[in-house]
Specification:
The protein has four helices and two strands. It has 151 residues and is mostly helical. It has a two-stranded antiparallel sheet.
Amino acid sequence: MQNKKINIHSFIPHISNRALLFVAFLVWTFAGGMLIYRGIIGIVEFPAFIVIKLIVALLLGTAFYWFMFTKISNKYVTRIINMQEEKVPFYAFFNLRGYIMMTLMIGLGITMRKTGLVPFEYLTVFYVTMGIPLLVSSFKFLYKGIVFNKN
């Protein structure tokens, strides 16, 4: 009987770089949309200063997009486009550092919500603030996936 090594890597679905851009679009859209949805629901739940909360979230979200997320999303788009492999694992839209950062951000958000460290009324503004740049950045992945041309 022959001992064959099982390569777990072969069980993971692999996709093209172009398809990976679409996967990244879906993931970033889902994350941004979920945060905006949860934030808006929470803001409506605590209607005091609703207009001010929405304006602050919109302004801060726009600032986060222009000053942080354009750079972050450009980095990931460039990384995906420049991958040398013909097919890559479906989860490769982030590198290890990106997954660690995402885990820390989600963990921090859950911790703040569950511990009451930040009152939920204010956390909802933060949700919208972070959801806006995620959602807007997601369209960069969609656009690059549509016009993808790896020379």
